[in-house]
Input
Amino acid sequence: LAQLGSRIEFPELQDKAYLAHAGISPLSTPVVNAITGLAQSLARQGAGAIGPILEMRQNLRQKLGQLLHCSPQDLALTPGTSWGVLAIAQNFPWRSQDRIVLFRGEFPTNVTPWQQAAQQHSLQLSYLEAEDFRQSKGLELLERELQKGVRLLAVSAVQFQSGLRMPLEDIVQLCRSYGCQVFVDAIQACGVVPIAPQHLGIDYLAGGAHKWLMASEGCGFLYVAPERQSDLRRHWSAWLSHQDPIRFLFEGPGELRYDRPLREEIQALELGSSSAFSQVALEASLTLLLELGIDKIFEHVQHYLDALEPALVAMGFTSRRSRQARSGILALELPQGVKAAPLAAQLREHGIHVSTPDGLLRIAPHWPNCPQREIGGVLEAFSRVLKSYRKTQ
Ligand SMILES: Cc1ncc(COP(=O)(O)O)c(C=O)c1O
Output
């Protein structure tokens, strides 16, 4: 039975302490079984497997609704986070000279599509520093921007590199008071930090499966607030965007038409065939995550990081973990003369798997990591590697 701190569902995982969930998560047994089960049923039945696949997609939307505390009606399945950002950037009802606020420090997924839209529609971009949102200074600078008139702000719920959890509630409130819409990239939050877009008043939220949701690449989701759905353009439309899109496959003659109206619902953005393997993986993983409870997972991860952080600081690392704005990530600046990538490679030889985005060391445990079982070994590996590293300097 899956339990916080138990690796029983990860029998194949090789690293002693896998701490790279902010990059790519390993797959649990239920997820692997769901993928192989689907492969077998497609091998046996081909098109005969489509009924259960359609049902699985319904279940997946339902579970994503539970995860995000929203109606499944307001969600579209996507191939990943970038796709969700692009879908909004390309279908937003832009007016020439609209202004967009972006953040320095963001993962490029939440910048590039807005830059492209800016070129296409003559929009203006301005950038705030994500780091400024550790203090109230960030909100003050944001208000100054909003006073100039801003159509949309795009931000990550959790910064991928520093792990800073952005003050979304304050950001959204401020934006709404100036009539500015808010887009959130939530891939570094969903699965470890509770998030409820509708409750917060977020207009659009995109995420993906392969990090904290512990499934595979190729599946993501896009939430669009009910009041925004009909305003979106339908520039991105394909066969599944029409009403009754699959009728012509099963009924007729005379059902093959190109004039069926486009669907009002946001699932019109699902466009065409999609990766059932990635979707079934996410469905299986969500079952596990929802059973464990995201609130409890968050607490568990904090407990792990609380134990690790001071010991690593004592070894000479500088923590970027915010006291008030915590996430699943502990980001560390390195001691003088130590470089992140070689350090991570050496840690890996000791069975400790961390990641190193843009020169910081990023530690990202999840529900199967166990502080009692792992932390002694993690600290020992750090101390050995640092010692050998210093000797060779
Ligand atoms: C904040 C953030 N957004 C987006 C992505 C990746 O997006 P996609 O799911 O399109 O690959 C990452 C991956 O590291 C990320 O950290």
Summary: The chain has 13 helices and twelve strands.
